[in-house]
Amino acid sequence: MINQLQEKYQLSLLLLLGSVAMFGILPFVAIRYAEGNTSAVIIDIMLILGIVALVGYAYYSKRIRLISAVTALFINVGVVIVVIANGFESFFWVYPVFASTFILIKPIEALCLNIIAGVSLIVLSDIFNTVSLASYVITITMLSMSTFVYASHSAKQFRLLETLNTVDPLTGAFNRRAMNTDIQAALANAERNGTQPLLAILDLDYFKKVNDQYGHGVGDQVLKDFVAITTSHIRNYDRLYRFGGEEFVLLIPGISDDQHTSFIENLRTAIKKELTTPDGKGITVSFGVTPWQPKATIDTWLQRADEALYQAKEQGRDCAVFSNKER
Ligand SMILES: Nc1nc2c(ncn2[C@@H]2O[C@H](COP(=O)(O)OP(=O)(O)OP(=O)(O)O)[C@@H](O)[C@H]2O)c(=O)[nH]1
């Protein structure tokens, strides 16, 4: 989910950059052609085709990060070649290209690429017979540094926004918005690639008593402890979401059938052992578990897990019930 948000944003930037680059360079193809400068026409056309191909490939393949990095490299190498070939005529392209690099890759990577391209220009082109080297160094350094600061600040704010958008502020578990997106993706992946995701609803037993006996603050701490303990016992790509109150959803994207019971039982036992009230009384959790079934939707999948959870509560709590069989 987090990456999806960032990748959508990155793709829109890439599309914008592709359009700007295309409509910015296109008039120069006509100008160079009118001037009879064939090599410049060829270079400009290659730049346009290269950028359009990269942006198009990013759009269809969704390999946004990789293509953004290749595009950053492509436009920096491209601008160095263009300035070497065309001299002063193309010199001012250096500035928009250097600034654009910061919307394609991480600020520190963009800064390094700017430095390499900037120094390459000094070493390889004879432009500085016409342009003042000192002016170039000062202006390009100011541009790169100010864009670096802006891009770093913007990246930090973006991360904060992603966190606010996807994480439950009390417990640090992912929120329902993230859950809906991830479950949707897991279902699509199961239908398409035959993965076997598993879904469980985890509900703390007699949690009202914890609140009543120790106060809401302790209740909050127990919820945080529960998330920390659970997260420490699941794999990196398994996800825990706060469904509401003291109810959580666990999504395991891929696990073989024969591991379902042992995985859930190990997790349940670990939580039971580690989750306690401040005076050391154990807190148990009930599980409603449901393996993926073809044609499942978010609603039907959650509903089956919820029904299994209901049975677990009916059976006296502190147990896991699977939607199609009891364990
Ligand atoms: N401290 C705290 N309590 C919460 C929060 N959200 C929900 N609760 C409490 O969770 C309790 C849930 O109570 P019930 O639905 O009766 O469930 P339970 O007591 O755990 O009983 P069973 O689920 O049947 O075992 C209520 O007392 C809610 O006030 C929260 O964010 N913090």
From TrEMBL:
Its EC number is 2.7.7.65. Gene3D superfamilies: 3.30.70.270. SUPFAM superfamilies: Nucleotide cyclase. Residues 195-325 form the GGDEF domain. It is an enzyme of class 2 (transferase). The keyword Transmembrane applies. The chain crosses the membrane at residues 12-34, 40-59, 66-85, 97-124, 131-151. It catalyses: 2 GTP = 3',3'-c-di-GMP + 2 diphosphate. Pfam families: GGDEF. GO terms for molecular function: diguanylate cyclase activity. Keywords: Membrane, Nucleotidyltransferase, Transferase, Transmembrane, Transmembrane helix. NCBIfam families: GGDEF. PANTHER family: DIGUANYLATE CYCLASE DGCM-RELATED, REGULATORY COMPONENTS OF SENSORY TRANSDUCTION SYSTEM. This is diguanylate cyclase. It comes from Neptuniibacter pectenicola.
